[in-house]
């Protein structure tokens, strides 16, 4: 039989991981495979321990679980390990050496049965065998995935997850991209390492720890993850990330957006002081071109812009073309500050035209915007 879903939806959460806005909530996924032996994959966030244990009990239908497989120790998945073990003390906890270090760090010493697996090990449940494929730093160092050959299914831990609870009607891609670049984006090389190992397996279904099970057209999701983890862009268009204190920089952004649209270029503009920062980060990675339009502030660039660039940098922003619009009445300094902050990013190409506004748009800056729009075309 295929797996049974026993996860939960969190509709009350405001900030996932204390920093990501999730207006449509989150799901914490958990699965049970019932074979001759039964295995539970991961627990859920602490708040939902009771609901999850009820789901587990219903799915087990009177049986006792043989294994609790821990793919990831972050507390949104691991918080209920001991609560589960108190209810089912004969279960064997399955993890790797790093998993057990983290269990001890989070929960203290424990005397429950354990099975420590190595990369590539298999575990038979009877008619099917599970293969452990380690995925270190596909978010945390202990992360592992499991391939179930009988179902051609990958239990992928955080990989392929998305924001949003399972009872939310929304496309996978936007919230999966926002989740990926927010949470896993720094670890592109680790994702590529996992992909190399997974190329040996025929994967037709993916069961992530957040978001829906991906049971059709798996190539589409794999292709997205491959692009994202290689820091490749998905659109030739332009993302304009801006701040505007009194509206003058915004007017320049609006003019640039109009010129780009007239050129047939896809464009999206977001206000860094007001719009969701994780969406801004995801858009910067989605597009080939990012234009940063910013005001000078205290001899530096506006704080929200500083923060935006820092967030890009810590996620290995690279391989992109960047345009700059700066605004400064008597001492424009934003462009220099932006370039200084981006100097550690690899393979950044700057548009030749850098636009400077002295307080407000004038003929000269409008002409410069036209030149910048032409450089960003296609
Ligand atoms: Fe969903 Fe890295 O935890």
- Overall, the morphology is elongated
Count of beta strands = 22
- Overall pLDDT metric: 97
Q: What proportion of the residues form beta strands (DSSP E)?
A: 15-25%
Question: What can be said about the biggest beta sheet?
Answer: 7 strands, mixed
Instruction: List each distinct ligand once.
Output: MU-OXO-diiron
Number of helices: 12
Cα end-to-end separation: 50 Å
Q: How much helix, percentage-wise, in residues?
A: 25-40%
Radius of gyration: 24 Å
Unreliable runs, pLDDT <50, ≥5 residues? Answer: none
- The secondary structure category is alpha/beta
Write the layout of secondary structure elements.
Layout: E1 4-5, E2 8-10, E3 15-16, E4 20-21, E5 26-28, E6 31-34, E7 38-41, H1 49-60, E8 67-69, H2 75-78, H3 81-87, E9 92-95, H4 97-107, E10 114-116, E11 122-124, E12 129-134, E13 144-148, E14 153-157, H5 172-184, H6 188-198, E15 205-208, H7 218-229, E16 235-242, H8 248-262, E17 267-271, H9 277-286, E18 287-297, E19 300-301, H10 303-313, E20 320-327, H11 334-342, E21 348-350, E22 355-357, H12 363-375
Parallel strand pairs: 7-8, 8-9, 9-10, 14-15, 16-17, 16-18, 18-20, 20-21, 20-22
Antiparallel strand pairs: 1-6, 2-5, 3-4, 6-7, 11-12, 12-13, 13-14, 18-19
Helix pairs in contact: 5-9, 6-7, 8-12
The structure holds MU-OXO-diiron.
The site of MU-OXO-diiron (FEO) has 9 residues, from α2.
């Amino acid at each position: 039989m295929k797996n049974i879903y026993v996860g939960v939806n969190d509709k009350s959460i405001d900030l996932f991981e204390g920093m990501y806005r999730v207006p449509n909530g989150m799901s914490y996924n958990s699965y049970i495979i019932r074979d001759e032996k039964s295995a539970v994959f991961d627990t859920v966030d602490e708040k939902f321990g009771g609901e999850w244990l009820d789901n587990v009990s219903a799915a087990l239908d009177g049986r006792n679980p043989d294994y609790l497989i821990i793919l990831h120790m972050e507390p949104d998945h691991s918080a209920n390990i001991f609560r589960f073990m108190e209810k089912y003390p004969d279960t064997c906890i399955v993890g790797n050496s790093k998993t057990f270090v983290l269990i001890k760090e989070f929960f203290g010493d424990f005397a429950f049965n354990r099975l420590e697996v190595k990369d590539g090990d298999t575990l038979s449940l009877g008619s099917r065998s599970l293969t452990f494929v380690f995925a270190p730093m596909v978010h945390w160092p202990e992360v592992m995935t499991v391939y179930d050959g009988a179902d051609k299914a990958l239990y992928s831990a955080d990989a392929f997850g998305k924001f949003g609870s399972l009872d939310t009607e929304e496309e996978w891609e936007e919230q999966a991209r926002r989740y990926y670049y927010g949470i896993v984006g720094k670890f592109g090389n680790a994702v590529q390492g996992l992909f190399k190992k997974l190329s040996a397996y025929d994967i037709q279904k993916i069961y992530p720890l957040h978001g829906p099970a991906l049971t059709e057209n798996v190539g589409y999701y794999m292709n997205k993850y491959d692009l994202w983890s290689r820091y490749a862009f998905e659109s030739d268009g332009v993302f304009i990330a801006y701040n505007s204190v009194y509206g003058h920089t915004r007017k320049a952004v609006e003019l640039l957006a109009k010129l780009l649209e007239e050129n047939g270029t896809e464009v999206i503009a977001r206000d860094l002081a007001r719009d969701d920062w994780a969406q801004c980060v995801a858009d910067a990675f989605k597009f080939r071109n990012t234009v940063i339009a910013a005001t000078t502030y205290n001899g530096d660039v506006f704080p929200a812009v500083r923060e935006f660039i820092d967030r890009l940098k810590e996620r290995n922003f690279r391989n992109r073309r960047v345009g700059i619009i700066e605004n400064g009445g008597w001492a424009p300094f934003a462009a220099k500050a932006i370039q200084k902050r981006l100097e550690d990013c690899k393979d950044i190409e700057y548009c030749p035209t850098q636009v400077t506004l002295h307080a407000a748009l004038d003929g000269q800056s409008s002409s410069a915007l036209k030149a910048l729009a032409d450089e960003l075309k296609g």
